[in-house]
Specification:
This protein has 394 residues and is mainly α. Helix content is 49%, strand content 11%. The strands form 3 sheets. A 3-stranded antiparallel β-sheet has the order 1-2-3, with helices on one face.
Length: 394
């Protein structure tokens, strides 16, 4: 009768002068029912081999022991985690998946050949440090916000590896995220807005830009707007979708958060501009013997199809540069809208609601420098009202 082997029992065999092969019983395979034997090579003295075997056996006997993954980080990311985020229970949008895939490719160039089970916190720390100093094209530094995105993606991927019992713990838990250097938002001055509008007058950019300045809508929301979401009588726009562009093309998608679904009141000048644009669009369709779709996009190409965001924003920036406003991009119009409202004393909750921020905290964080300026104005207001009354203490 064959003697039953206990899980965690093992032996060692000398393979060379200071090389030892550890052999240990890992219990039954839950899938096949057959017993499994694990092997490991260690370097050092016989005493070191004995101690290594004892420690390894103790770990294997633990009920929560996880067998080290043989896969590299690259194999895990490309064969398991990315497919899971594309089609699994936690599938993300095509645009987000595209971004995750790009980040994983970057990570794999540095850490891809490291075994998942051997990935250490210090390896990740060094990777993040390298990103901040020479991780970009031609060894240029990556922006701190970009590196923080890398941190978040790797943290999420390794957290899932723990859930799948591929590693016992997440090495990212001992890694600090990079400190993001906040960029101060510098909105357009009224004189710059006048110069911009004059430079794009009569072009395809005129009304989209005017709408962004009047509402704070994002480019994707502006280009995704349909006539069914525009109520000119109520002077109101409903934001219910946005355009997303990936390598596979463009599509309409829902806002990221509930706050993204919103109604925005329009100034009269914008209502008049939209009404005139609608009339012209109907007339142009009739001129070219094309049916005007009352449910179609507000801003479309001549065939009535959605406008490609990347082409639009690149052309807009070029046109702004020709107007003498180098470096002006479409998203800056959203910041200009918000900044002007804050400077005019509009309630920050109203500003946040118009922008579709998920929380008022986001609005306060982005425009904190303007809030500081308003605090100065508040102090000046107290001076104006009570300065003569309060006077100098006697």
């Amino acid at each position: 009768m064959t003697k039953r082997r206990d899980k965690g029992t093992g032996t060692y065999i000398q393979r060379g002068r200071n090389s030892w092969l550890l052999k240990i019983d890992a219990g039954k395979d839950p899938k096949t029912g057959k017993r499994r034997t694990l092997y490991k090579t260690v370097k050092g003295t016989k005493s070191h081999a004995v101690n290594s075997l004892t420690q390894w056996a103790s770990e294997i006997r633990q009920p929560d022991y996880i067998e080290p993954s043989k896969a590299t980080l690259k194999e895990y990311l490309e064969e398991k985690w990315l497919p899971f985020r594309k089609d699994g229970a936690k599938a993300v949008t095509p645009k987000t998946y595209e971004r995750y895939n790009g980040i994983c490719q970057h990570i794999n160039r540095y850490l891809g050949n490291v075994k998942l089970s051997n990935l250490r916190s210090e390896d990740i720390d060094q990777y993040l440090k390298d990103c901040l100093t020479s991780g970009g094209a031609k060894s240029t530094p990556l922006a701190s916000q970009t590196v923080k995105h890398h941190y978040r993606v790797l943290f999420s991927a390794l957290k899932q590896a723990v859930r799948w019992n591929r590693i016992p713990r997440n090495p990212m838990e001992n890694v600090d995220p990079p400190v993001v250097k906040k960029k101060k938002v510098i909105p357009l001055e009224p004189s710059d807005v006048s110069k911009l509008i004059a430079g794009i007058k009569g072009t395809e950019f005129e009304l989209p830009a005017a709408l962004a300045l009047a509402t704070g809508m994002r480019l994707g929301e502006v280009l995704g707007l349909h006539w069914t979401e525009v109520d000119l009588e109520k002077r109101e726009i409903k934001v219910i979708q946005t355009i997303e562009q990936t390598k596979e093309g463009i599509r309409l998608k829902e806002p990221k958060s509930n706050a993204g679904y919103r109604r925005i009141k329009l100034p009269k000048v914008t209502v008049n501009a939209l009404r005139g644009f609608k009339t012209k669009q109907m007339r142009d369709r009739l001129k070219f013997r094309m049916a005007w779709d009352p449910k179609g996009p507000v801003f479309s190409n001549p065939a009535g199809e959605l406008t490609i965001p990347r082409n639009f924003t690149n052309a807009f920036s070029r046109t702004a540069t020709k107007a003498g406003l180098k470096g002006v991009h479409f998203h800056l119009l959203r910041h200009t809208h918000a900044s002007q409202l804050i400077k005019d004393g509009v309630n920050i909750k109203t500003v946040s609601s118009r922008l579709g921020h998920s929380s008022i905290v986001v609005t306060l964080d982005v425009y904190s420098h303007l809030m500081a300026e308003m605090d100065n104005a508040a102090a000046d207001a107290i001076d104006a009202v009570y300065g003569g009354i309060l006077g100098t203490p006697s």
